Amino acid sequence: MKKTLLLLLACFLQSDLFAAAPPNIVFFLADDLGQRDLGVYGSTFYETPHIDRLAKDGTLFTDAYAACPVCSPTRASIFTGQWPQRTGITDYIGAPSLPEQWTRNTKLLPAPYTDRLSLDAPTLAKALKASGYATFFAGKWHLGPEGWWPENQGFDVNMGGTDKGGPYGGKKYFSPYGNPRLPDGPDGEHLPDRLAAETAKFIEANRTRPFFAFFSFYDVHTPLMAREDLRKKYEEKRERLGLEAKWGREGERDVRLVQEHAVYAAMVEAMDLAVGKVLAKIDDLGLRESTLVIFTSDNGGLSTSEGWPTSNVPLRGGKGWVYEGGIREPLIVRWPGVAKPGSVVSVPVSSPDFFPTLLEAAGAKPQPGQVLDGASLVPLLKGGAIAQRALFWHYPHYGNQGGAPCAAVRRGDWKLIEWAEDNRVELFHLAEDIGEQNNLAEKEPQRVAELRAELAAWQKQVGARFPTPNPNYDPAKPSGRAAKRNPN
Asked: Residue 43 carries which DSSP code?
């Protein structure tokens, strides 16, 4: 009897230790993928079976947001747990960063921004590495020049992360890549599949210890290029379904209203296949139950520029705009034993939340005095709640997609947008108007005043920079915000 009790106690202790072991972490970050670009979020043209399955096995967030409508600021926010305004990276790196560099005929001069993530930044990779994790990065970095790349920010391995915002070397999405951090593969090798293979290789090599693998897709960013077989598949599907392009207007830009772009659809599927390849390796190694998986994107789908490849309908606008189409993201979290399979969370969350979430999951601690703007999502994943709060955006720039300097705040179902050029405000009730068509600002002056005051207080707290009047602005000349699209 005594021997049996000892065996039971040993099993209990072993089980308790296993339960307390930190999970492996795999983070998928898509580039320019809109929330509505996935089947599980309503797309009927693009096919994403592996990501859809991930959602069925975990938690799907309906109101997840990127911290900025363009890439670099959101990426900095994910890695630091801070609003972009604190890191100083408020525009995509590579945009003119100083007012004196500005040549466009716009009413305002965009605010200056920081063109690299500080080496002193307490990044997520550094924190997890300090807690014993092996750390790996694959794909797009776009957070500074050489010397500020992933290997300088806490990652043990960097496969493909440089200063570039897209795969612009060599044959771009096909080998040879011309990427100084990614050895070329066989001629014609496809980039998303290669990065998935590198991620799977890292996972297998580190299967006996906690690992953090950050797979940062170049997909579905321009250039719009796809495997020929997948392109043909979607051309045939478009014809079979009788889909045709339809267009609306967003400011001075056309905006795509129907998902029917065959090359883009092929890129989305290639991304999904890469996710599936990594998930299959996790399963093959028996690591499914001990691995936390996150899938999200860095800004909304590209619908008003640069090929106009996707539609975010019913969301308004797209990348470069603070309307919902530019900032509302897919977010799926699979964490066996914590996140209930098939669960849905409608609480608004944002990019800074990933840092405290993963620190809590790993049992890690932030550095003393470290500022974290996000909230841990662990209570939501467990079926609980987090404290009510507002989410904020501040984009003091003119994007390539037609947007203008602005700021926004969402509290509850209410969202206010403040435009810098003319101090105009828009107020939307998202629960009743997800397409942001009914501006309620004149009907709700008290609510407008309260939200503007809250936004201004936050801007002051995070040290937001503001655009300034452009002394060379000529209202008689074109603004440069209009763009011509390919009629196809």
From this structure: -
